[in-house]
Every structure is written in structure tokens, then in C-alpha cells.
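Appendix C: a fully annotated inverse folding record. The material below is reproduced so that readers can follow the format used throughout the book. The structure is listed first as C-alpha cells, followed by the designed sequence.
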């Protein structure tokens, strides 16, 4: 890599560290922009995945959705919930 390409790569890493997006790339020349983006991606690839923290509200919403799904499954297993399809009387109305 040339000196400018190395500098662009390092700036990409620094930008990622500061929380900037790919759209914040200051370079317009294709080669330098590509190196900046490689540095940006390299920094993100080196970071461990962030832990998922569910808020109490999110946990309550999940519990409600699970309960709704379980109620639906229980209803589907009861044979009295299934009815034979009702035939419409359109055939006799058309005559």
C-alpha cells in the first residue's frame, strides 16, 4: 500500500471507532475510498458482538406473545374448534 492508502485505511479505522458510518467517508477517489472502507470494516469485524440486553418491557411483550401462541396451539388441538365448511346457497340462488 502507498502512504496515502495506509493513511486512508487508518482513518477508516478511527472513524469506525468514533461511531461514524460508511457514508461519512471523506474520500471521493475510488482507491482511497476503498482503503478507508476496508479500515472501517476491519475495525467492526474485530469487535466482539454486543450483548443483547432485553428491557423489562421487552421481556413482558415476549411473554405476552408466547402466551398468545400457546393459547392458539391449545385451541387448535381441541377437536370442537374445527367445524366443517358451510356450503353457500349460491347455487340455488342462481337458478
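Designed amino acids, in order:
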Amino acid at each position: 500500500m502507498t502512504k496515502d492508502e495506509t493513511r486512508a485505511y487508518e482513518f477508516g479505522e478511527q472513524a469506525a471507532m468514533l461511531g461514524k458510518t460508511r457514508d461519512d467517508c471523506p474520500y471521493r477517489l475510488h482507491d482511497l475510498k476503498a482503503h478507508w472502507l476496508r479500515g472501517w470494516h476491519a475495525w467492526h469485524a474485530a469487535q466482539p458482538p454486543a450483548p443483547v440486553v432485553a428491557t423489562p418491557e421487552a421481556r413482558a411483550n415476549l411473554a405476552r406473545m408466547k402466551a398468545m401462541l400457546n393459547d392458539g396451539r391449545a385451541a387448535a388441538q381441541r377437536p370442537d374448534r374445527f367445524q366443517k365448511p358451510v356450503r353457500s346457497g349460491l347455487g340455488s340462488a342462481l337458478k
